[in-house]
């Protein structure tokens, strides 16, 4: 548990070094320095921001009082006191910090050693008295075990904490490491012993969805299990907990809600542009698995308002109800086959029952890397099996790409459009994939794939990723409709191109109607000669719930909105298929919901929108349905999900270990 504090100090320090948070004291307190990934920076930014929001609001709202106190529980090497003191916010406030005795001693020694810290706090020489390891005018550092209430009370009394003064308690990922009976007792003790108080809590929620399971496993492996999750699995349960333990007012929000409601738009944009970033799914999932809570009691001032606003968006504004469940089964004979543990890849049916998977990031020879190898699955006698692939890649331009598209155009040709290597480099252009005619046998044992470079002229529109490319028909001619995505320069694109399939030349075709807002990570399907676009991530990194049809007219195309009811829950990073007038959306990431997306079926005639949960009881591992690929086999009404997963914040990378088959026959009954 103590080591988690050290590691979080290093992460906060790295975030400060990259400009996410302004805090010159972190580097003095963190000890070792290590550069973390952009996703970690964002995660620690939102954490620091949530705590600061509440603490500064508390100090602002209580500045008319003669004295206040802050008690930081399990403070570790946090810099809160030094930051507030430096900003001149502690005129009438004393800060008390408590942590394990050995942590408190280490921090005290560090403060004495570092001139910049000791000068700010001013040593009054009160240490050595009982639990006090460092004592200044307005700062007391105590060594005590939080789970032993009598020991904690004694230490605070020695240090001069006054129960009659308005006190703010802070517990930043601390209480969850204690047994629930002990953390509950601490919450209740604070409410009973302090007539006027506020309590700020930041920790984890949602333990049972796939991301939550990976998160729990990570902390268990560190021997620092998260105890509160079983009893208090969501924000509502945490709110009920505080109200039951003597607090009269309590507001709570997950970090997606906090980011949207409490961080001004210009600040959101500043953070989103600090460094190249392309891990939106994991960012939103991390934020839906952490919350900030502010409780209070005895606040008599008529001007007092809570430290956190109450959430205006209805919590769990996810599906109204589930229409049913769809069983998930692993494909027999495919377990342990290397090459399918990947994400950000593409899978395409290159002939009946033969699937080609290319690109992405995954596992090869026990290493995590961008995937160079292609992979082919072939179904025979009811079973999927892996087929040997020979790759002829004459140049480096394949580039081991992620988030590209592959359009299968004929028996021997597929077109690869866009994709990226690193999010800081420019997008990649177009390539042909060639298959020799001989691979048209019904059950190939071997497939050869050759890459053929294209003339650069066709590439202007292709330097993007997380876009879509869909086959359309206009006046009997075949076109590819390239739409949306993002690039190294533009975080979200809303433009489109018609690419004539035969000549690979761009053609200008008139499009009328309301233009959809820019998006990436959406889905796109061919339907009746036009294109169906659903969901995606919009300009402010907010998921979209709109569905559009690009419909062929005599002289061009027209955008039409498809109204869904109940409204489609906004999502992105899903896959989609059309079957007999129904649009199927598979997986993805959504916000404000306690469940994860399963399969949504939209009737394109009536707009009726039904959500189905995926039953994973027969899977022995968490099924992450984002950054996956899926192939629909209409005759069997079978949906094959390949790969998926991602980098789960600091909890490790999760890759779905094997393909999963979903039988849709029950929900796609032909009328």
TrEMBL record:
Signal peptide: none
This protein's UniProt keywords: Methyltransferase, S-adenosyl-L-methionine, Transferase, tRNA processing
Catalytic activity annotation: 7-[(3S)-(3-amino-3-methoxycarbonyl)propyl]wyosine(37) in tRNA(Phe) + S-adenosyl-L-methionine + CO2 = wybutosine(37) in tRNA(Phe) + S-adenosyl-L-homocysteine + 2 H(+); 7-[(3S)-3-amino-3-carboxypropyl]wyosine(37) in tRNA(Phe) + S-adenosyl-L-methionine = 7-[(3S)-(3-amino-3-methoxycarbonyl)propyl]wyosine(37) in tRNA(Phe) + S-adenosyl-L-homocysteine
Biological process annotations from GO: tRNA methylation; wybutosine biosynthetic process
Keyword Cytoplasm: no
Cited SUPFAM superfamilies: Galactose oxidase, central domain, Kelch motif, S-adenosyl-L-methionine-dependent methyltransferases
Family membership: Belongs to the methyltransferase superfamily. LCMT family.
Protein name: tRNA wybutosine-synthesizing protein 4
Organism: Dasyornis broadbenti (rufous bristle-bird)
């Amino acid at each position: 548990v103590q080591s988690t504090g050290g590691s979080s100090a290093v992460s906060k320090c790295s975030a400060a070094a990259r400009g996410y948070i302004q805090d010159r004291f972190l580097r003095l307190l963190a000890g070792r320095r290590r550069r973390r990934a952009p996703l970690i920076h964002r995660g620690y930014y939102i954490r620091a921001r949530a705590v600061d929001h509440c603490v500064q609001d508390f100090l602002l709202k209580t500045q008319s009082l003669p004295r206040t106190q802050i008690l930081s529980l399990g403070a570790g090497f946090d810099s809160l006191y030094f930051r507030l003191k430096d900003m001149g916010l502690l005129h009438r406030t004393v800060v008390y910090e408590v942590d394990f005795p050995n942590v408190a001693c280490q921090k005290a020694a560090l403060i004495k050693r570092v001139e910049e810290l000791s000068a700010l706090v001013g040593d009054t020489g009160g240490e050595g008295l009982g639990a006090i390891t460092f004592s200044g005018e307005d700062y007391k550092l105590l060594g005590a075990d939080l789970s032993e209430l009598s020991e904690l009370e004694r230490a605070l009394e020695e240090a001069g904490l006054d129960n009659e003064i308005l006190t703010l308690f802070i517990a930043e990922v601390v209480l969850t490491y204690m047994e629930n009976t002990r953390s509950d007792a601490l919450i209740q003790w604070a409410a009973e012993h302090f007539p006027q108080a506020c309590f700020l809590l930041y920790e984890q929620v949602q333990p049972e969805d796939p991301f939550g399971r990976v998160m729990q496993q990570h902390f268990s492996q560190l021997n620092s299990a998260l105890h509160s999750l079983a009893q208090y699995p969501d924000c509502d349960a945490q709110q009920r907990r505080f109200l039951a333990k003597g607090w009269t007012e309590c507001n709570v929000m997950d970090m997606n809600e906090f980011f949207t409601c409490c961080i001004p738009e210009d600040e959101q944009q500043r953070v989103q542009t600090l460094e190249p970033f392309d891990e939106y799914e994991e960012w939103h999932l991390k934020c839906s698995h952490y919350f900030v809570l502010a409780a209070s009691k005895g606040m008599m001032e008529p001007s007092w308002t809570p430290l956190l606003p109450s959430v205006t968006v209805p919590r769990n504004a996810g599906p109204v109800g589930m229409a049913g469940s769809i069983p998930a089964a692993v494909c027999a004979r495919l377990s342990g086959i290397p090459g399918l543990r990947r994400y950000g890849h593409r899978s395409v049916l290159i002939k009946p029952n033969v699937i080609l998977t290319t690109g992405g990031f995954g596992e090869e020879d026990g290493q995590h890397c961008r995937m160079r190898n292609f992979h082919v699955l072939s179904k025979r006698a009811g079973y999927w099996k892996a087929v040997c692939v020979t790759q002829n890649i004459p140049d480096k331009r394949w580039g081991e790409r992620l988030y590209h598209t592959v359009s299968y155009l004929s028996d021997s040709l597929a077109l690869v459009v866009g994709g990226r290597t690193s999010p800081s480099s420019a997008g990649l252009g177009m390539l042909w994939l060639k298959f020799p005619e001989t691979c048209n046998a019904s059950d190939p044992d071997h497939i050869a794939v050759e890459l053929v470079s294209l003339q650069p002229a066709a590439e202007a529109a292709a330097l993007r990723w997380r876009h879509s490319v869909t086959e359309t028909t206009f006046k009997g001619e075949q076109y590819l409709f390239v739409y949306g995505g993002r690039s190294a320069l533009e975080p979200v694109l809303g433009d489109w191109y018609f690419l004539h399939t035969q000549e690979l030349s761009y053609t200008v075709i008139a499009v009328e109607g309301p233009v959809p807002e820019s998006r990436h990570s959406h889905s796109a399907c061919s339907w009746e000669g036009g294109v169906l676009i659903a969901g995606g991530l919009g300009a402010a990194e907010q998921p979209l719930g709109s569905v559009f049809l690009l419909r062929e007219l005599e002289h061009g195309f027209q955008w039409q909105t498809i109204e869904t009811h109940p409204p489609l829950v906004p999502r992105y990073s899903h896959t989609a298929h059309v079957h007999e007038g129904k649009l199927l959306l598979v997986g993805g990431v959504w916000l404000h919901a306690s469940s994860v997306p399963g399969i949504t079926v939209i009737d394109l005639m009536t707009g009726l929108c039904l959500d189905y949960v995926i039953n994973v009881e027969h899977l022995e591992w968490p099924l992450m349905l984002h950054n996956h690929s899926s192939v629909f086999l209409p005759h069997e009404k079978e949906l094959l999900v390949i790969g998926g997963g991602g980098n789960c914040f600091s909890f490790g990378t999760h890759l779905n270990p094997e393909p999963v088959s979903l039988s849709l026959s029950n929900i796609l009954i032909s009328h």
